[in-house]
Write a structure and sequence with these properties.
It is a single chain. By secondary structure, this protein is an alpha/beta fold. Helix content is 43%, strand content 16%. The chain has 16 helices and 14 strands. The strands form 2 sheets. An 8-stranded mixed sheet has the order 3-4-2-1-5-6-7-8, with helices on both faces. A 6-stranded parallel sheet has the order 11-10-9-12-13-14, sandwiched between helices. Helix 13 links the parallel strand 13 and strand 14. The protein is globular and about 60 Å long. The C terminus is likely disordered.
């Protein structure tokens, strides 16, 4: 079977959509499938094309995955107007250059932002193949939730397009139970919706590290002798990573080091404030390539997962928590809702109120001072991921679902274990 997958992000970008698709596609081609990806020139989140690439059409092969890079209007991942223009340009470019892809058996397009999904719908019709819509984020609801745009006539138009896609897709794949309820309430048929949660590649989490490089990173950033509480990921409007700077300012224990790794729309403001405070117990580190972020995980004693406290974010499960759990790193989890329930069920972390630096400090200090609690949380993560969120298992379930959709058979995937 041949799959054509449209995604606005793909490696060398290292955000969650890029990682999810790459790890799935790598498993699919290893099992004998054929996968082509239509994506952007890597530029996320700064809106600047990475070294070695240009903003023009090109075709490359990453492993056994055929990748079509299409030109687009580039914009930083912040604000509303320019980003929407960027999304629209990718949509048009993806449709136009889809003619260079071999006719697939099924077309898949992934959110966040449904302009990629619109492109997937159009391409599926042009190539006369079934269409699968993957929902990784609720868009346009998320841009309203973070304050990038107010709910207005344009947002209402986007919501109508969203509902059209839910109704017309041959199948909808979502990553949380809450998303499943949302898409069904907005027009998708229940029998056409499947929950395939995010996960982690245990092989990557368990791979050996270069001791010399690990020691060099520890020395460069002053990690030696410190209890490191780290947030690693996008510094966007949704994440409120600045809460770690607030925590550092309030933390009385000099042996706790608060670390933020990444870039995004809010990095400049965080960098300016960090420079003004000049705290000895806080580090702001540039984003890292995928093969290097493993070393920072190995230096991390507690992984902080955090989102703004809005009702919408109670429906999400940040994918970074699975990578931490797979690596045996206890979580301090500042997100309400479905992901908090998952963390509590796993026994792999402590749940705190979001946007509460005092609660964050208390949880991190508790883990530092209670060795038995720390050990229990650390040991709980890997077996839970192996049992429920092994990326290789999830990828094979996904492929089996795509085979049924391509054959236009009723989808009846194996149910996931309860979180």
């Amino acid at each position: 079977m041949r799959v054509l997958f449209l995604s606005a992000n793909f490696p060398p970008e290292v955000n969650a959509p890029a990682t999810r698709l790459f790890e799935h596609a790598r498993r699919w081609v290893a099992d004998g499938g054929e996968v082509e990806v239509i994506t952007d020139p890597p530029n996320y989140p700064e809106g600047e094309v990475y070294d070695g690439y240009e903003n023009r059409y090109c075709k490359e092969k990453i492993g056994q995955i055929e990748v079509h890079r299409v030109p687009m209007y580039l914009a930083e991942n912040k604000g509303g107007g320019k980003r929407i223009l960027s999304y629209l340009s990718f949509m048009a470019s993806a449709v136009w250059f889809s003619r260079k892809a071999t006719r697939p058996d099924v077309v898949v397009a992934t959110s966040p932002q449904f302009f990629t999904a619109v492109a997937g719908y159009v391409v599926s019709r042009l190539k006369r193949t079934p269409f699968v819509l993957e929902i990784r984020d609720l868009w346009p609801e998320s841009i309203v939730a973070v304050g990038a745009m107010r709910r207005n006539a344009l947002i209402r138009l986007f919501e109508r397009v969203e509902r059209f896609l839910y109704r017309t897709a041959d199948h909808v794949v979502v990553v949380t139970r809450a998303f499943e309820r949302h898409v069904v309430a907005n027009g998708a048929r229940p029998e056409n919706v499947t929950v395939l949660m995010n996960g982690a590649d245990l092989g990557i989490a368990e791979a050996d590290l270069d001791p010399g490089l690990l020691a060099a990173i520890r020395a460069e950033h002053g990690f030696e002798g410190k209890f490191v509480a780290a947030y690693a990921g996008t510094l966007g409007m949704a994440h409120r990573a600045d809460v770690l700077l607030d925590a550092a300012q309030r933390c009385p224990d000099p042996d706790v080091l608060w670390v933020v790794i990444g870039t995004g729309a809010e990095r400049a403001a965080l960098e300016a404030r960090a420079a003004q405070l000049n705290l000895p117990n806080f580090r702001l580190i540039d984003k890292q390539p995928k093969d290097r972020i493993r070393y920072f995980h190995a230096c991390t004693d507690v992984a902080v997962v955090h989102l703004r406290d809005t009702p919408l974010f109670r429906t999400v499960i940040p994918s970074k928590l699975f990578e931490a759990m797979a690596g045996g790193i206890p979580l301090v989890h500042g997100v309400r809702g479905e992901s908090a329930a998952l963390v509590e069920a796993s026994g792999a972390g402590l749940v705190v109120e979001p946007e509460d630096p005092d609660a964050l400090v208390a949880a991190v200090r508790r883990l530092k001072d209670d060795a038995d609690l720390y050990r229990r949380l650390s040991e709980a993560g890997p077996p839970y991921v192996r049992a429920h969120h092994d990326r290789q298992v999830l990828a094979r379930r996904y492929w089996a679902l795509l085979e049924r959709v391509a054959a236009r058979e009723p989808a009846a995937p194996e149910p996931l274990p309860a979180a």
